[in-house]
User: Which sequence fits this backbone?
């Protein structure tokens, strides 16, 4: 008997065999067997339940967990796919997808989610590697394990390192999840350190191949002393140059300056004489001549015949001739005067320059005369020589320091390799300890978990899990036969084991959450499926099995057996769905006496959950269950007359009747459609 919410009805147009692809409806029990041929639409029911609950479906063109709307719409007869699952707690799960202009739109889904199909995650974990299966198994079996329990499985010496890593890697995780994270981190760091060691070894080898002989400390001290001595010589030379001059240098400098001063003086005197000679060569022209030229220019300008000076009748032409003559003479004079003047200007500049240089030289002479004679320092040499000596010493020291640096890097690399190897060893020890703790946790809890799984299996099937093969960690499960574990299971056996393990895992899931298990269809035989169905009765959640075979003999009590060939035929022919064969427990029989089961009649003209009318009715407050039950005529009447849900009751055949109330007016019912 199921104590969790389960799917009690599914309404869908997925793979609908009806005319126009109209939706079909099917009631399900807590434990349901869908048997029939391969064309009896068993997969349609299974995939509809999966889509309503999780928003995905298995076994779509050979693919698992399909969410692609464009692919899922290939299972619908038109451009719309609508599925509604009604659960036993009154909740409803919906899946809707449609196309617009030939393009699939994002589907909508409001079901409990993929966690309700526990067998999916279990099958995925158990079909992977041994490490993946062990990790999943640890999480399934160790939900009550805390941090103190984990530390109890680890050597005390490793507790500080484990806590430090778990503090970061295991944040917001369970104790077992933190243990797994620390183990994975330790393994990862061990691998990373191995890479670092290889890099350090490569540096070590490169340095060792090219490095020169390592200088001794005595060699380094001697070279540093040489640099220091060269720097002192340079400093002494600079001080000697700045402190004063030797008498010899002073006398030599004064002699040079005196010679230069005399040379500038002679140069100035020569330029002065040259200027005076040029001045004498300047042509002279009197003011009267200039005035006469001006007067003649005025006479010519005014076309006069008389001489402007004496008033003689000389004629205009004579005046013009005089004007031309005077102008030519003036130009000759100006040209000769300009040339001489330029030479005089040049001579003047030479005079000024010579005087300036001579004055500067005399000032320098006076400065040198004032310089004190410096004391003699035997270390002082020309500054340029001192600088060259210091540069040579520093270059030699630099080369020696480079060699010493390479040797230091080599020593550091050797030390780093030692540190890395120690660090690697500590991480390896932590990983080994964590893996050992995981193994112990698995071993300690595997017996209890095997008992839980065994509770859902036929008694003659002895379930067993193997975690070690000698010292090698493995994860194998199967049935014990003749004292040995047999892992090569048949398809039906494997599907049963996956389902039974999923049932055991369900115990850690919130009891208010649906847990629907759909064993994979693996060619059940009648004997096996009968035994399996008996074992599955102990499961608290829902089980839906699809098979081409009925169970051997009388079906186990508590199972709903549905002949899908008959159901599919009824869907096509449009007749009422026959009552399903139900075997119930004594408790359920007593309940059924108190609450007679209602015969479910298929609605010939029901609404699609994705239709506009259905959405309008839902907005008015009508429950999804009632919307899916009512006929199109009923829906149209309720919409046109804006009838509230409190005013009517929807009958099982899709019709409606008014609810008697003092404050409610009677409703005139529309005529029923003629029966086909």
Assistant:
């Amino acid at each position: 008997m199921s104590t969790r919410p389960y799917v009690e009805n599914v309404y869908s147009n997925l793979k609908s065999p009806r005319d126009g692809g109209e939706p079909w409806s099917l009631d399900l029990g807590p434990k349901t067997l869908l048997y029939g041929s391969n064309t009896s639409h068993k997969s349609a029911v299974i995939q509809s339940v999966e889509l309503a609950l999780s928003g995905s479906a298995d076994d779509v063109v050979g693919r698992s967990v399909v969410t692609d709307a464009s692919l899922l719409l290939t299972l619908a007869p038109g451009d719309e796919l609508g599925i509604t699952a009604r659960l036993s707690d009154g909740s409803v799960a919906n899946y809707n997808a449609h196309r617009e202009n030939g393009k699939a739109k994002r589907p909508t889904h409001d079901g409990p989610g993929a966690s309700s199909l526990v067998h999916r995650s279990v099958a995925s974990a158990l079909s992977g590697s041994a490490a993946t299966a062990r990790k999943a198994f640890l999480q399934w079996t160790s939900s009550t394990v805390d941090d103190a329990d984990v530390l109890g499985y680890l050597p005390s010496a490793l507790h500080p390192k484990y806590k430090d890593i778990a503090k970061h890697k295991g944040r917001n995780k369970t104790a077992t999840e933190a243990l797994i994270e620390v183990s994975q981190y330790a393994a990862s760091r061990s691998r990373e350190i191995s890479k670092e060691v290889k890099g350090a070894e490569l540096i070590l080898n490169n340095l060792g191949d090219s490095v020169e002989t390592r200088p001794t400390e005595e060699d380094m001290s001697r070279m540093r002393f040489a640099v220091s001595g060269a720097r002192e010589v340079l400093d002494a030379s600079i001080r000697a140059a700045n402190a004063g001059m030797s008498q010899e240098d002073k006398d030599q400098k004064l002699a040079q300056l005196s010679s230069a001063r005399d040379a500038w003086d002679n140069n100035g005197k020569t330029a002065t004489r040259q200027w005076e000679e040029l001045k004498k060569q300047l042509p002279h022209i009197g003011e009267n001549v200039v005035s006469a030229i001006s007067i003649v220019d005025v006479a010519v300008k005014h076309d006069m015949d008389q001489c402007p000076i004496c008033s003689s009748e000389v004629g205009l032409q004579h005046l013009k001739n005089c004007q031309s003559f005077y102008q030519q003479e003036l130009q000759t004079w100006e040209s000769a005067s300009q040339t001489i003047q330029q030479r005089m200007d040049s001579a003047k500049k030479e005079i000024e320059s010579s005087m300036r240089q001579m004055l500067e030289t005399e000032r320098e002479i006076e400065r040198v005369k004032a310089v004190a004679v410096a004391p003699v320092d035997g270390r002082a040499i020309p500054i340029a020589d001192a600088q060259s000596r210091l540069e040579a010493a520093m270059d030699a020291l630099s080369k020696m320091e480079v060699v010493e640096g390479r040797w230091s890097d080599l020593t550091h690399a050797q030390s780093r390799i030692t540190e890395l190897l120690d660090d690697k060893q500590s991480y390896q020890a932590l990983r080994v300890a964590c893996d050992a703790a995981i193994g112990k946790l698995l071993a300690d809890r595997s017996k209890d978990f095997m008992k839980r799984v065994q509770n859902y299996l036929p008694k003659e099937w002895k379930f067993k899990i193997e975690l070690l093969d000698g010292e090698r960690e493995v994860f194998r499960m199967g049935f014990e036969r003749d004292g040995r574990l047999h892992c090569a299971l048949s398809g039906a056996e494997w599907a049963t084991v996956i389902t039974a393990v999923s049932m055991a895992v369900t115990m850690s899931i919130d009891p208010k959450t649906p847990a629907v298990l759909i064993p994979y269809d693996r060619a059940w035989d009648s004997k096996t499926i009968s035994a399996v169905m008996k074992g599955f009765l102990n499961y608290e959640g829902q089980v839906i099995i699809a098979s081409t075979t009925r169970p051997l003999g009388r079906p186990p009590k508590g199972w709903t057996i549905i002949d899908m060939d008959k159901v599919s035929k009824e869907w096509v022919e449009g007749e009422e769905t026959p009552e399903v064969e139900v075997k119930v427990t004594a408790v359920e029989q007593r309940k059924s006496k108190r609450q007679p089961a209602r015969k479910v009649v298929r609605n010939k003209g029901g609404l699609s959950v994705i239709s506009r009318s259905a959405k309008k009715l839902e907005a008015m407050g009508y429950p999804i269950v009632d919307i899916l039950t009512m006929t199109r005529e009923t829906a149209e009447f309720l919409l046109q007359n804006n009838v509230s849900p409190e005013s009517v009751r929807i009958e099982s055949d899709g019709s409606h009747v008014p609810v008697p109330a003092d404050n409610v007016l009677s409703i005139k019912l529309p005529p029923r459609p003629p029966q086909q």
